[in-house]
Amino acid sequence: MKNVTDSFVSLGHWPFAGSFGFNTDILSTNLINLSVVLGVLIFFGKGVLSDLLDNRKQRILNTIRNSEELRGGAIERLEKARARLRKVEMEADQFRVNGYSEIERKKWNLINSTSKTLEQLENYKNETIQFEQQRAINQVRQRVFQEALRGALGTLNSCLNNELHLRTISANIDMLGSMKEITD
Asked: If you compute the radius of gyration of the chain from its CA atoms, what whole number of angstroms results?
C-alpha cells in the first residue's frame, strides 16, 4: 500500500516541460473538473431538462383530460345501464307473472313427448328381441343341419367300402357328363 501512495506522491514531482504541465494534485483538480462539468450541465442541460419537464407536464395534463372524459362517459354509460336495469326488472316481473302458465304448458309438452319416446323405445326393444330370437333360431337350425350332415357323412363313410365308393363316384361322374351334354 505504501508503494501505491508513493507512486502518487512521485507523480507530483514531475518536471514541467516548458509552460505546459499536468497538475497531479487530486483534490484541486477534482474541484475544478467538477465545477466545469456542473457548469456545462447547467448551461446545456437547462433547455433539455426544461423540455423534458414541459413534455411530462403536457402528458400529465392530457392524461387528466382523458381521465375526465372517460369518467364522464362512464357516468353516462352507468345511467344508461341503470335505466336498462329498471326496464329489464319490469319485464322480468311481467315474465314471472306470465311465466307460470308457460312453464305448465311446457311441462305437459315434455311429459307427452317423453311418453311418445318411451313408446318408440319399447317398440324398438320388441323388434330387437324378435330379430335376436330369429337369429338364434337360424343359428340353431344351421348347427343342427351341420351335425346331421356330419352324422350322415359318418354313416356313409362307415357303410361304404372302396368298391361301392368307386361305383358311386363313377355314377356321379357319368351323371354330370350327361348333364353337361344336355346343356351344350
From this structure: 58
